Amino acid sequence: MTTETPDNSSSARLSPRRDLEPSPVPVAKRVPTERTHHGDTVVDEYAWLAAKDDPETIAHLTAENAYTEARTAHLEGLRAELFEETRRRTQETDLSVPTRKDGHWYYTRTVEGQQYGVHCRRAVRDGETAPPVSADGAPLDGEEVLLDGNLLAEGHDFFSLGAFDVSPDGRWLAYSTDFAGDERFTLRIKDLGTGDVLADEIPGTFYGTAWSADASTLFYVTVDEAWRPNRVWRHTVGTGPGEDVVVHQEDDERFWVGVELTRSERFVVIDIHSKTTSEVRVIPAANPTGAPAIIAPRRQGVEYAVEHHGHRFLILHNDGAEDFALAFTSADAPGDWTPLIEHSPGTRLESVDAFENHLLVSLRTNGLTGLRVLPVGGGDPYDIDFPEPIYSVGLDANPEYRTREVRLRYTSLVTPDSVYDYDLVTRQMLLRRRKPVRPGPDGRPYDPADYEQHRDWALADDGTRVPISLVCRRDTPRDGSAPAVIYGYGSYEASMDPWFSVARLSLLDRGVIFAVAHIRGGGELGRRWYDQGKLLAKKNTFTDFVACARHLVKAGWTASDRLVARGASAGGLLMGAVANLAPDAFAGIVAQVPFVDALTSILDPSLPLTVTEWEEWGNPLDDPEVYAYMKSYTPYENVAPVDYPAILAVTSLNDTRVLYHEPAKWIARLRAVAPQGDYLLKTEMGAGHGGPSGRYDSWREEAFINAWILDRLARP
What we know:
Layout: E1 33-37, E2 40-44, H1 55-71, H2 76-89, E3 94-95, E4 99-101, E5 104-110, E6 118-123, E7 144-148, H3 149-153, E8 160-166, E9 172-178, E10 185-191, E11 202-211, E12 217-223, E13 229-236, E14 245-249, E15 256-261, E16 267-273, E17 278-284, E18 293-296, E19 304-309, E20 312-317, E21 325-330, E22 338-341, E23 347-354, E24 358-365, E25 368-375, E26 382-383, E27 392-395, E28 405-411, E29 418-423, E30 429-434, E31 451-459, E32 465-473, E33 484-487, H4 502-508, E34 513-517, H5 527-531, H6 539-554, E35 563-568, H7 570-581, E36 588-592, H8 598-602, H9 610-617, H10 624-633, E37 646-652, H11 661-673, E38 679-684, H12 695-714
Parallel strand pairs: 33-34, 33-35, 35-36, 36-37, 37-38
Antiparallel strand pairs: 1-2, 3-5, 4-5, 5-6, 6-7, 8-9, 9-10, 10-11, 11-12, 12-13, 13-14, 15-16, 16-17, 17-18, 19-20, 20-21, 21-22, 23-24, 24-25, 25-26, 27-28, 28-29, 29-30, 31-32, 32-34
Helix pairs in contact: 2-4, 2-12, 6-7
C-alpha cells in the first residue's frame, strides 16, 4: 500500500493536543562546572548529571522517562501494532544451520516466548555430511544442551553472553556472563561431559578467550580502570584465579589487546593494536607456558593481522599499501614478508581466512563486499559472484581447518539473512537456509519482489560522490510525497553494508523509504574514505550526510519535512552535528546512545576508551588545533537558539562506551537554549551500549522508536 501518510488505523492519535502535553522535566539547580583549555573557558551547567550514584541524577533520568512516556502515550496502540507485526513475521521457535566441528554439529535454538538462545550440539552420525535439520525449529534428536541463556538470565533484567568457547577436545566450555550491561563479564568453565560448572570463576573479564591444544589452559583478557583491554592472562583449568599469570600487559594507553586460537589450533594469537598501529605475538598452542613471539615489532602507522597456514603466517598489512596487501612469513622463524597479493588501490582487503587447501580473502570494491578464493598449490585466484546489485556477504563460522566447504552469510535490503555452503573444489554454492519471514498483518507471504532497492549518489560540498542505498515498496511514488528515514554512522572505518530487517518492513509497508548514507569516516570505499572522515577532516562526515539528505529531496524520493534521520553511538554524534548544521533538513532525529559531548569526553583521559580514541578524533588535550576543531562541531558545545527538528535520544544507564550523561546533558541544554523544540530522552535503567538484551525487549524498543518516527512523518 502506498499512502502519503503512514497507514495507521487510528490517525487521530498521531496529533495530540499540545495544551494537554506535560511540561518538560525541570533540571536541578547546581553550581556550573568550568574547564579551561588552551585559553578557552567553558561553562557546563549540566556536568552534575555525570554523577551516576547521585540520587538527583537518578531522579532526573526517571523523570525524563516519565515525561517521554507521557508525551508518547498516544502511540501506545501503534507501538503494540508494530511489536506484534515483528513478532508475527518472525519464526519464534527456530534453529540455526548447524556448523560441524570434529565429531559434533553445533547450533543455537530459539523457543517461542523465550528471550534468549539455547546453545546446543549433536553428535555427527555415520555417513552424515549435510547439516541436520528439524521441523519448525524443534530440537534435534539426540541433542546436548550446552548453555541455555534463558536459565542463566533468570532473575536478571539484563543478560549478555561474552565468551562461548568449546575446547579443542570438546570437553570444556568457557563462557562468560554480564547481568548489568557494562561489559564486565564473569568467566566460568563447564564440563560438557558431566554438565558441572567448575569452581574456576573469574570476575571482571572482557571479550576474547583461547584454549591451549590439550585444553589444560585457557587464555583470557581483562581491562584497566579506563575500560581498556590491557592484559592477557593464562589460567590453568581446575585452579583458582589467584594463580593466573599475566602473559602480556600493554602499558601504552593507545593500545588494546585481544586473544584467540587460530583455526589450525596451532597458535594462540595475542593481537595488540591502536587505531593506526599493530603488533601480533603468538604462543604455540602445544606449549601454553611459552613466551609470546613477536611476528613484527610495532611501527607507527603500520597495521597488520596474522593468520596461520601450514608452514607460514599470512600477513594482511598496510605497509606501503593504503588499501592493504597480503604477504606471508615463515611460521618457524618470522622475518621478511613475501608478497602474495599486491596492493590494488580501490580494492580494500579486509581479512584473510586460511583453510588447508584454500585461502579466502574478504574484500570490498566499489562500495560492495566480496570474497576472493586463492587455491593453494595451483589454480588462479577468483572472486565469487553474487546476483543482486546491492548486498552484503561474508564468511560465517568455519571452525574446521581441513575442509572443502566454507559457510557464507548473505543478505541485502530485500533478501533475508541467508546461509550458503560453498564448495571450494566444484565452485557450487548451496543455499542451506534463508531466514523465514512469515506473513504480515495482511496475511500475505513475504515476497522480495514487492520491494525494490537502489544505489544512488549524492554530491558533497567538495564534489565527492557519496553512495546511498535505498529500499522501498515498488509502488512508492517518486514525487517527493513519500516519507523517508535516512540512517548514518561514518566512523572507525565501519561500513554500513546493506542489511535486512523484519521490523523495517512495518515502515516500508506504510510507504516509508529507508536509506543508508555511506558517508566518509566509514570504510565503504576503502581506507581513503575513512581517512577523509576522521581527525581534522571529521566534518566531511557531517556534510556528506546533509548532502545525502538534500539529494533525496532533490531527486524526488522525499521532502525535508517528511524525512527523519537516525544514527547510533558515533552515528549519534552525527545526528547531533547535523541537527546543528542543517536543522531545516529533517522532520525528526533519532539519536541512540549518542556521542554528543565528544569534546568533554575526549579531554578526560580517565574516562573509558578516551586515550585509545585520540587517533580517531585527535588529542584536544595537547593540540590546540584539534581542540578548536572539535569544539566547532561537537553537538553539546554548539546548541543554538534555532528551530530544531523533533529529537528522540535513547541511552542506557550502564553504557561504558558512550556514557548516559552525554545525551542527558544534551537534551537539557537543548531545552534551555531552544525551548520551542520537541525533545525526548529515554534511558534504559538496566542496560548497556546495545540496549535491552532480550529479543522481545529489543523488539519493543524498536517498536517504540519506529512509532515515534511514524508519528513525526505523519505530521503536516
